[in-house]
Amino acid sequence: MTRNKAIALAVKIVFWVLIIAFFWWAFTSEAFAKIYESPGTFFNLLSQHLTMVGISAGLAIVIAVPLGIFITRPKFRKSEWLLVNIANLGQTIPSIAILALAMGFLGIGIRAAIVALFIYSLLPILQNTIAGLDSVDPAAKDAAKGMGLTPAQILFKIELPSASYSILAGIRTAVVLNIGTAALAYLIGGGGLGVWIFTGIQLFDPQFLISGAVPVTLLAILVDYMFRGLQFAVVPKGLRLARQAAIKQA
């Protein structure tokens, strides 16, 4: 076992020991009492949280991935600087400011929260789509042209499969960021698990705080692992092996 692998294994062991210790403390001290006492309220808040994240991320995927494809076409390459910088505003402006701006235009409620989260998640998906498509081997595209494939066939049979790992990584980043940022939606009346988090802060009640914050954390970790599994399942085996070889050489 190499030194880097040993360090990574040690970090994982420490991480899981801390997680187990935290949950042992939480269950023995009744820190999750609010979930036991009000399961209906908890699942309602969880549903609101997932709705905000799901709709905003879905809209971002539907817009950012085609936009990334559009930008990487030779005819429209000049528009990359403008469009990427526009999307970059969503990450440059603090998330709380985006929520406030959305509330100013759309009023209080879940609709404003969804729009704000959508804006916040555009850049990671767009950047990774562009990076993934740009990393496709030009020789592979030239070979496909030589075989008589149309530009559309090259896109769907060569470029997108080759860029799939990078695109999914961008989607994973956007969704995980949205899960955490969605907790702030409470501040503009969007609901979600942030209701319990901020109630716990306002009342100095650790039961409310932990019953809201821990599910958000676990949800982010779970979704991250799910997308890692999806990347493994979707990305062609040859690309995975090439990526692993590149990592080992580095």
Describe the structure.
By secondary structure, the chain is mainly α. The chain folds into two domains: 1-30; 31-249, MetI-like (MetI-like fold, Orthogonal Bundle), CATH 1.10.3720. It contains eleven helices and no strands. It has helices at 3-28, 33-37, 39-71, 80-92, 95-106, 110-134, 138-146, 151-181, 194-203, 206-234, 237-249. α3 (39-71) runs antiparallel to α8 (151-181) and α4 packs across α6 (110-134). The longest helix has 33 residues, at 39-71. The radius of gyration is 21 Å and the shape is globular. The mean pLDDT is 87. It comes from Paenalkalicoccus suaedae. Belongs to the binding-protein-dependent transport system permease family. CysTW subfamily.
Radius of gyration: 21 Å
Q: Give the overall form.
A: globular
- Strand-residue proportion: under 5%
- CATH topology tier name of the largest domain: MetI-like fold
Percent of residues in helical segments?
A: over 70%
CATH superfamily of the largest domain: MetI-like
Q: Architecture of the largest domain, CATH level 2?
A: Orthogonal Bundle
Query: What is the helix/strand order?
Result: HHHHHHHHHHH
Count of helices?
Answer: 11
On the 0 to 100 scale, the average pLDDT is 87
What would CATH call the class of the largest domain? Mainly Alpha
Structural class: mainly alpha
The largest β sheet comes out as: none
Low-confidence stretches: none
Distance between the termini: 17 Å
